[in-house]
Amino acid sequence: MTSADFPPPSARPARIILILALAPAIGLGIGRFAYSLVLPDMRDSLGWSYSTAGFMNTVNAIGYLAGALGAASFVRRHGLFKTTWIGAIACVVSLALCALSANFFIFSFARLVSGFGAAIAFVGGGALAATIAQSRPAQSALLLSLFYTGPGTGLIVSGLVSPFILQYFGPGSWWIVWVALTLVSAVMAIPLLLNRFDTAANAAPEAAPHIRLKPMLPYLAGYFLFGAGYIAYMTFMIAYVRDAGGDAVAQSAFWCLIGVGAYASPWVWRKLMARGESGMTTAILIGVTAIGTGLALFGSSPTLLAGSAFVFGNAFFAVVTATTAFSRLNYPAVAWPRVIGIMTITFGLGQTLGPFVTGAVTDVMGLSYALNISTAALALGAVLCALQRPLAKSPPRQ
């Protein structure tokens, strides 16, 4: 099937973007974040330290970084849509590998593959969603936000599955959870394979456009700290909830509330997204994410944890939307895959550092200190993004 054979996306943009959103649902919502749900049982069963547990997310982040670095080239070779579904399928394969073995190296490799697949799916899908949203200027912010509800879908699905499997089968059943998540993800990938589409703007430029980094350094620095800060919360919060006495219902509710917050995000923040040409939009959203993280520092009551999960989920996924909006409002369409790729690389660098460092600190000082580090990194990231000014929207140099 050639690009000319694809149905035009402008006729049904919301439906198509929601199908594209299945890629980050698989790659991020399940492939990356579901690890946190399985982690406590894996630590107990396999004797892992928090450093080892954090390292597994560091490996995932390294794969994500590698995928982000190669995404522009991958898009030029395969197109935006094919890049998206290839990334999603790679994540399904990685989930199957996680179920097969507790061997440190095999599991690490699976996490690496998952990160790589998630990155190329995110860059390809995000650029294609931005292109489709551009065809409806009045709805573009809302349409683009729909793509970023994908991770929330993955969070809710994994939150409804994982804690109850662990409770039913008991200690050591972590591998059964990975089997179940593999099957669920394979089903979610089917619409991506059956509903192929693309746009005339799909073809990436013959030569990759040059993007000057200096004008956007405050933004990149803030986004780096966002990547380092959020991942500590997402890696260790289920362990925090469990250690506070939370059973399967509490863990599931907490995780699903993060996903519900993500679903509410497009409607809560859509007016702010339309003004995303400076770094202030992203700064506000990172600041709210820091508030969500910080709420858990005040105690482990159900009310505080529920508020923390919802506020965090609502703002966290909106930050990623805001970076795409920033790219779309400051650069021409030909540069979007490259700019989104640069953002993803920056995010990936932060994610690579965050889990291992916070895991090491947690081993020495306890889980609450991981939340302290997370909140501080997010707060500083918000300040740096606030310094970013709009860029002149001019064609990139070739």
| C-alpha termini separation | 30 Å
What class do helices, strands and sheet pairing give? mainly alpha
Q: Can you tell me the overall shape?
A: globular
Give the overall average pLDDT: 85
Name the beta content range: under 5%
Stretches with pLDDT under 50, minimum 5 residues: 1-7, 200-206, 394-398
Rg on CA atoms, Å = 19 Å
Tell how many strands the DSSP assignment holds. Answer: 0
| Helix-strand pattern | HHHHHHHHHHHHHHH
How many H/I helical runs? 15
The level of helicity is over 70%
Main β sheet profile: none
If you had to describe this structure to a student in words, what would you say it looks like?
The chain has 398 residues and is an all-alpha fold. Helices cover 77% and strands 0% of the residues. It has 15 helices and no strands. Mean pLDDT is 85; it is low at 1-7, 200-206 and 394-398.
TL;DR of this structure?
With 398 residues, this protein is mainly alpha-helical.
How is the topology of this model organized?
Elements: H1 13-20, H2 22-30, H3 34-46, H4 50-78, H5 80-100, H6 104-134, H7 140-147, H8 150-169, H9 174-194, H10 217-243, H11 248-273, H12 280-295, H13 302-330, H14 336-365, H15 367-386
Helix pairs in contact: 1-6, 1-7, 2-5, 2-6, 2-8, 2-9, 3-8, 3-10, 4-5, 4-6, 4-14, 5-6, 5-9, 6-7, 6-14, 7-11, 7-13, 8-9, 8-11, 10-12, 10-14, 10-15, 11-13, 12-13, 12-15, 13-14, 14-15
